Amino acid sequence: RKLSEEAFFISMISDYMRTQENKLPATPTLIMETSWEVCNKVGGIYTVLSTRVATMIELHGREALLFFGPKLDTPQKDFIPSRRKADLQLADHLTSETGIEVHIGSWDVVGKPRVALIAFQSLFSQKGDLYYEMWQEYGIRGEIGYGDYDDSCLFSLAVAKVMEAYAKLFPSEYPLAIFNEWTTGMGLLALRKWAPQINTLFITHATSVGRSIASNGKPLYSQLSNYDGNQMAEELGVMCKHQVERTAAHVADVFATVSEVTALEATQLIGRRPIVLPNGWEEGIIPSGHQLRSLRQSGRKAICHLAKTLYGSKIGEEPFIVATSGRCEYRNKGIDVFIDALRRLHSMAIERDIVALILVPSWVKEPRPELQVALASEVATTLPMQMPYITHELYDGLGNQILAHLHSLAENWGQKIYPIFIPDYLDGADGVLNISYYDLLPTLDLTVFASYYEPWGYTPLESIAFGVPTLTTDKAGFGMWAMENNTKNCLRYGAKALEREDDGFESLAESIAVKVGRFSSFPKEMVVQSKQRAKKLAQKASWHHFYAKYLEAYKLAINHNQSKES
Questions:
Q1: Region label for 74, one of left (φ > 0), alpha (ψ between -120 and 50) or beta (otherwise)
Q2: Which fold has domain 29-281+544-561?
Q3: Angle at 552 between CA 550 and CA 557, to 5 degrees
Q4: What residues are paired with 177 via a beta bridge?
Q5: What integer pLDDT is reported at residue 358 of this predicted model?
């Protein structure tokens, strides 16, 4: 870490120690945090928590933290079961006290935080009684829930029971429970009723109504002030989630979200102004310069081999590799715009072949067998495969919007522009590239995230942290932050946030195409400078900077709860 960052962190630790010495109720002595994504990677919340823990451990100590996640039937590779006698006894005690099976171990991320996985499934037999209690206390109608509602709510209720038992077993002067997203909201409400002495912080990373408005093609930003959260929740069929989320936001000692753009959304749709806790980055994840160069060399070789095998054509030795990635939300993540920008590039005079990766996990069935055989063969393919723009078979086939869009523009691909849709998680075992996402990032020349709805946006932050310049939009929380901290707002300085409105699809796609084409022709020294500036910008988003906001939130939560008790 740079000296300035070390000085900042030392200063923050000094401030923290002074509050401890003065015995001010500013920092919790026990932090329990829960999310559906603890040891269960689904989206960006996994990255928020897994990168934040190292800084938390440095400040609070490992024993003061305990994370709670769901115990699932599927393998959870990043959960390391503990073999320590004390942990096994703790798990047995909590299981006995609550009737809920608890597994104690650690999370296999930087810092190796302590974690409890909760087998919530046993609460299904008590669902009626538990939902009735929530209806009596808060007016929440659990019977209208559907989809992932029951799993989420029963998981969070199980967590609340275990948190209550854990806090009794290890009494603490200032205990704090952090709940992330609506999926844990009912647990917060239950904990408030069962153990009101525990201070609570509720963080919404995206409102259920706001996400639904955007996903259903309705104008979110120009009409935001006209929307009523309850009315829209009813109209869009997310009333069950909205009820839990809204009530948790109002009951919590502190309500927070991750960016100013989502704070405006939450204020309007939920009815309480949240504080902003921006998402940071753990620099310890970034490989050394030598490792990055090695990953780039081997990764580009694998990508070029994949592109040549799929398209059966001779691609230049140094193609320009651009990518987009993220959750499979076709409109919200701007994947539709990205594909249309590639179409426009086809008609432009570009100097280099462009390989465009779409790294979006979807309803994947298996790797394409014929592709795997061809990749393993020593004989190069000379003809394009059928549908050369996808690497895996999908259960929904052309029902997948990304694949359907690529297929509808098939005549544009294979001459200068080579899109490749990889719909599997890049965990190093996808069956085609077999390269993890973070190991793939250094191979890229540019990333594009044309987000329409993006409360924060870890993907562009990850990109610049690895020295890959990025295009994003001003509707992403990260994009807004980057505009404030990168006044040049251009790719030569590592990141550019493009203006994105409710309409304007055509102009945005055209702008992306022009900028990708232009950046692909940048001289080498200009690209190197852009990469260096990207890394420098990412350093400003270190958790060592952003975690100070959490310390302020903890103080607010403790003071708020104490004022209620007095």
A1: beta
A2: Rossmann fold (3.40.50)
A3: 90
A4: 32, 200
A5: 98
